[in-house]
Structure to design on (221 residues):
């Protein structure tokens, strides 16, 4: 029985060595951070080959010579070639270590939701806990949560509503960690990549200083 179990595991575990050595494309669905002229966005890596990463980018973009793709611990640089309205290829200047990317434990589904790429931002927010309203700054964000800075005291396990300009309703979440003036909030429902990218794009548009933003009061009716 022990040998049968070993054989079964071998069938389940994919071997990518032959494909990568032959230069064939390996299908992989992993979220990555793509830095382009307009700023950082999240994208879906559909496939990898020797020097090409095939991407889905769910927002307007243009082809460019210098783009950076961060997938797990790997950082690829090269030309971004547009192949469709929402698809592109990153043609890396260096060979892509496909085996290292596929073996990266931070990218495995079993590693949990907190392993998704996080984009650094500096955006004003309001954290609501019951009737208590707390001013905060968002320091980084991803589809699964965000990191905030606040001088108020938060506790692990707090159920919060995050009010951010650009979202039509509060983002529901829970405080997962607190270190000093920083805290991590995990969203109850993961944000679609397209929605988050649209919000990130809006952050690059500067606002007049004479028109400060105040978080809206959300009606409970």
């Amino acid at each position: 029985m022990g040998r049968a179990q070993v054989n079964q595991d071998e069938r389940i575990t994919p071997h990518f060595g032959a494909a990568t050595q032959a230069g064939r494309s390996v299908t992989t669905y992993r979220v990555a951070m793509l830095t382009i002229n307009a700023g950082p966005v999240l994208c879906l890596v559909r496939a990898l080959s020797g020097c090409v990463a095939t991407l889905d980018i769910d927002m307007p973009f243009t082809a460019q010579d210098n783009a950076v793709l961060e997938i797990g611990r790997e950082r690829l640089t090269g030309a971004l070639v547009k192949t469709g309205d929402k698809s592109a290829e990153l043609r890396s200047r260096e060979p892509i270590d496909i085996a290292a990317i596929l073996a990266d434990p931070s990218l495995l589904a079993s590693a949990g939701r907190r392993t998704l790429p996080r984009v650094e931002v500096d955006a004003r927010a309001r954290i609501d806990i019951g009737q208590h309203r707390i001013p905060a700054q968002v320091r980084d964000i991803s589809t699964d949560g965000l990191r905030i800075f606040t001088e108020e005291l938060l506790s692990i396990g707090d159920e919060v509503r995050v009010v951010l300009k650009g979202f039509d309703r509060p983002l529901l979440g829970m405080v997962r960690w607190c270190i000093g003036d920083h805290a991590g909030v995990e969203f109850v429902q993961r944000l679609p990549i397209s929605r988050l990218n649209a919000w990130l794009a809006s952050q690059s548009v500067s606002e007049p200083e004479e028109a400060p933003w105040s978080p809206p009061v959300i009606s409970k009716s």
